User: Fold this.
Amino acid sequence: MESTVPCKVADELEELLREASQVFSDYVRSSRDPQAPVIPRIEKLNLTIPEEDGMGAAGIWDDIQTICGAATNTWSERFLYKLYASPTPIGVVGEALVGLLNNNAHVFQASPIGALIEDKVGRQLAELAKFPADTAAGLTFPGGSYSNMHALMVARNRRFPELKRGGFAGAMAGGEWRRPMIFTSAHAHYSIEKAAVAAGIGLDNVVSVPTDAAGRMDSHALRVLVEQAIANGGAPFFVNATAGTTVLGAFDPIDEIAVVCADHGLWLHVDGSWGGPLALFSSDEELGRYRVDRADSFTVNPHKLMGVPLQCSFLLMRDGLAPMREALGLGASYLFHGGSPDVLDDVGDATMGCGRRPDAIKLWLAWRYHGTQYYRRRLAAARRLALDFADMVSARPPTALGCWRLVARPQSTCVCFWFVPGQPHSAPLPSWGHATRLLCARLNSLGHVLVDYATVDLPAGPLPTFFRLPLNSPHVTKETLASVLAAIEQTAQALTEEDPRCFVADSS
Ligand SMILES: Cc1ncc(COP(=O)(O)O)c(C=O)c1O
Assistant:
């Protein structure tokens, strides 16, 4: 593709990229330094926009250095905060490529290569999910929340086709109207409730299904709740099962849930935004047998466990894109001219958006670069590390200030635990939660480690706030995790020296 045609804009790009290549790789090198902060202190930044002339290349590198210096450092193995981590280097190249092409994946002709790749990657993921090869397809959305929302909208319009034109007012005027209801576990991500808000279902019609002690949806309770809803004149139509809940990493029992859905004609969606890749790529006894194929739709976020840069989320549809087009398509003729009849249709009309990034290119490129085995190994290693870390926490000896206690055996790659102040008790106490929040805040304020906390309700009651560390980055090692536990102990020591009663709390 080399060309000798004079081109000023190409020269400008070349010069910028040459410098960027150095600045970016230096940034990654310094971010991986054992002393590098994870949350740098934000000094006074000059964020003004020049009124007249811009600063050009001469000034921009200072700005980029400033941004890098002030950014949260996801490349550090001590970034153990949310459910994503550093991208892979090829992921960064993929992100740059998508920016370079600036193709819009709404209509085929605007991004033929993007469309072909999206189609291929969607089918490949669907194959891993063991969806029927002749029908299944997938599309990217800007995040798991949007994928989940689209699944709900498709299910809603399939069950209540009159909504597309008449809306709720039109449907209710029909006289036969029954209240649409959806079901999701008490541990599901909030995006399901947001989707219910966006889809006009309303929060009061989202039924929260209790979980078992491990945080998995109780399928018997689901059946009872669905049947109660029908008996009370409601119209259940959608169940969301989670593959890897946000906090405990639980996998809802899909086989049992699928039976309830089949018995009552409900759409079964699986939100695998977090744990989906574990089900797709795992040969693990537990997760490798997870039957995603029993779902009607399935969300998976390569931007979480697979190291693709934010954002890259797929919604896979067992019956292909036709139900999406039917539910959401309008066929605006000024934009959609029918795609390329021999190759692929335009896909944008199947979504609630217009312009779309060809995010699938990022996953495709990374998958070609690394191969499937890389993901199998990476995910197996993350899972093994989570189990080893849980063992480390359980086996760690107490200090004079407290002891360690695991919340539960990890079911995906999140590890949840407490540093229990004082002597351990048989049941979790409110002071445990107070201690977690205090320790987390102080530790994070020092900038060297970034950890997070969460809480959940179990059948026996709410748990006090605990540490939740998602293990995602391949750079994290057992040594990293041992040093985080030591840092928590040191922080407990420092806080107690400042105030010996600091961990005493009267509420969680
Ligand atoms: C289970 C689950 N579903 C959905 C989401 C939302 O995904 P996104 O942040 O890509 O919108 C998350 C985010 O953490 C999640 O854990």
Summary: Residues 83, 143-145, 189, 191, 242, 246, 271, 273-274, 301, 313 surround pyridoxal-5'-phosphate (CB under 6 Å). The radius of gyration is 25 Å. The chain has three domains: 8-73, 100-374, 375-498.
